[in-house]
Design goal:
- By secondary structure, this protein is an alpha+beta fold.
- The protein has a single domain, classed as 2-Layer Sandwich (Alpha-Beta Plaits).
- Helices cover 17% and strands 36% of the residues.
- The strands form 2 sheets. Strands 2-5-1-6 form a 4-stranded antiparallel sheet, covered by helices on one side. Strands 3-4 form a two-stranded antiparallel ribbon.
- The protein is globular, with a radius of gyration of 16 Å.
- The N and C termini lie close together (8 Å).
Length: 118
């Protein structure tokens, strides 16, 4: 079963990321994402993943009365922002939880799992 794993961090939406997409000021245990990536890629459960730019760089798209409306910035201001994502292919939710719980950012931030419709 495929899952979208969202890595959410508590930082201002316009704050940038540090080296390799790591949050500025990340605690040392949060810096070992590369090791997690290597392990999950080796297991074959991580299909794709990237750090993403801050919400201040986003564009919101709406269509109203046949017209495309664009807004700079995130759709909603929130305390936690999505810093990155991974697409996982796991046997079941238990395995997806096990994989997500090993992500270094889960120790002091939030990792959310959303199953794909199949």
């Amino acid at each position: 079963m495929k899952y979208l794993m969202l890595v959410c961090v508590n930082r201002p939406a316009d704050e940038g990321a540090g080296d390799l997409g790591r949050p500025v000021g990340a605690a040392p245990d949060e810096m070992d994402v590369d090791t997690w990536v290597e392990e999950m890629d080796g297991r074959g459960v991580r299909l794709l993943g990237e750090a993403i730019r801050p919400g201040s760089d986003s564009t919101t798209v709406r269509v109203r009365d046949g017209k495309v409306l664009l807004t700079d910035g995130p759709y909603a201001e929130t305390k936690d922002v999505i810093a990155g994502f991974d697409v996982l292919d796991c046997a079941n939710l238990d395995e997806a939880v096990e994989v997500a719980s090993k992500h270094p950012m889960a120790r002091s931030n939030v990792v959310e799992l959303r199953p794909f419709w199949e």
